[in-house]
Amino acid sequence: MSAQSATKGAAAQPPARGFTEPDQVKRYADAKASGNKRVLDIDSVYDPAWMKGARVLVTGANRGIGLSLAKEAARCGAVVVGACRKPSDELAAIENVEIVDGVEVTSSAACEALAESLAGKDPIDVLINNAGYFPDVSDDFTGGLNFEENLKQYDICAVGPLRVTAALVKKGCLRQPGGKVINITSQGGSALWRQVQNANKGGDYGHHMCKAAANMCGVLMAEELRPKGIAVANLHPGFNRTGMTKKYEHIWDIEGAVECEVGAKRVMHEIGRVGLLDSGAPFINCEDGLLIPY
Ligand SMILES: NC(=O)c1ccc[n+]([C@@H]2O[C@H](COP(=O)([O-])OP(=O)(O)OC[C@H]3O[C@@H](n4cnc5c(N)ncnc54)[C@H](OP(=O)(O)O)[C@@H]3O)[C@@H](O)[C@H]2O)c1
């Protein structure tokens, strides 16, 4: 895999992108009304070419979106490193996946052990920091705050990607130049959008604060890693039907939540489009490929 081919899917110029709609119900209704194929049928635009022969590492690869990203990368010809705390049967069933277990992203030692296990091998072309945590607990003044859970989310979702990326960069495990670091953050990390999505109610402090911090992590890493030729992007994977969002099952249909297989294609499509030419770390909604404001 050459550095050039690692960024094969990236356009010569960064794709022109406008900003997307903050109201999720309206966004999905508009997409259906206008027959937006990018939103409704990712297969109609999907370009997985960049994955062939690329070495792709996914954290939290044992279930949910991470598992689907690992499966999709393998299906499209990537060499997959599935990092997880504990493997699942589904992860182990992927052909040619290299599983690294014990990858607890709140542990520097575990992240360094991951890097150690990769040292001396072909460098990673794309690191996907996917592991995340959003507990089903009350998180507002009315129902009660939970500072322990708040800090745990921050540790996993904001500091986790920094620990993993730093360990890999330090050991020279990420391709230079030509590598990409992808932070799977969330639209919940958009400060501006809180005034729409949390209007007059606030809440979900732990989740939204940690994802805003994860976005900042991505922006700063983009600046630090640009001279090494490594691109960084913050991606909102879209609304996916996973264990994490089971508590929102009642709004899955009206807000256009998709199965992870679809969500993974949307994410992979955008990974192919981002590159060093994007300014800083673009914050992209993988549902429609448009920008979310920080
Ligand atoms: N689903 C959505 O609609 C949605 C929307 C926006 C953003 N996201 C983001 O997308 C990512 C994946 O979400 P998901 O829906 O697939 O969640 P999920 O089904 O709950 O899976 C979470 C994954 O993260 C791993 N993880 C949790 N804590 C960890 C830790 N301390 N160290 C290492 N791994 C850890 C889990 O591993 P274990 O099995 O070991 O717990 C699991 O593999 C997350 O970052 C999430 O915030 C999801």
TrEMBL record:
Q: Which Gene3D superfamilies match?
A: NAD(P)-binding Rossmann-like Domain (3.40.50.720)
Q: Which domain of life is it from?
A: Eukaryota
Q: Identify the stretch(es) annotated as Disordered.
A: 1-23
Please list the GO terms describing molecular function. Answer: oxidoreductase activity, acting on the CH-OH group of donors, NAD or NADP as acceptor
Q: Which Pfam families match?
A: adh_short (PF00106)
What the entry lists under SUPFAM superfamilies is as follows: NAD(P)-binding Rossmann-fold domains
* The protein's name in its UniProt record: Short-chain dehydrogenase/reductase
Supply the source organism for this entry: Chloropicon roscoffensis
